[in-house]
Amino acid sequence: FGSISTLFTGDIEKEAEDTLIPLGTWLSSDIIKVPHHGGRTSSSAEFLNTVSPNTALVSAGRNNSFRHPHQETLERYKDIGADIYRTDRDGAVTITFPAGGSHYDVKTYQDSTFKEVKGLKDEIKNLRLLLFPF
User: What is the CA radius of gyration of the chain?
Assistant: First the structure.
């Protein structure tokens, strides 16, 4: 969208990543849907250095039997400085592209739920959610 690029990787693993790496800068993306739910057999360092995402989205169920995402995979994203969002912890993740397509905003389910009011700051946040939900 505009100048923002997103790579939807599906369920690929290292073997498929290796076939994509020769694309070089064409593979570069601002946002990546983390391959294979963040499993150990995906998101190789070489692949991540080629894609060079700023934002990584992990789609994984809470307490899943595969224990996705794996810590070593998350560490590779941290090593390249990507912001990581995880559906198993953050709930739904929504990305919006304001007019112009030169930047994007990421919000999670946690960002859009009312909080217990412990002070004025919490009250203002709740009012914003009530009056401006999007």
Answer: 17
Per-residue pLDDT reduced to its tens digit, 112-130: 777 788 989 888 887 887 7
Write down the residue that tokens 């030169």 correspond to: 102
Q: How far is CA 127 from CA 10, 30, 52, 66, 112, in A?
A: 38, 32, 37, 39, 11
HEC readout, 27-67: HCCCEEECHHHHCCCCCCHHHHHHHCCCEEEECCCCCCCCC
Peptide bond into 69 cis (omega under 30): yes
Using an 8 Å Cβ cutoff, are 39 and 31 in contact?
A: no
pLDDT digits (tens, 9 = 90+) for 85-99: 999 998 999 998 888
What is d(CA 124, CA 126) in angstroms, rounded to the nearest whole number?
5
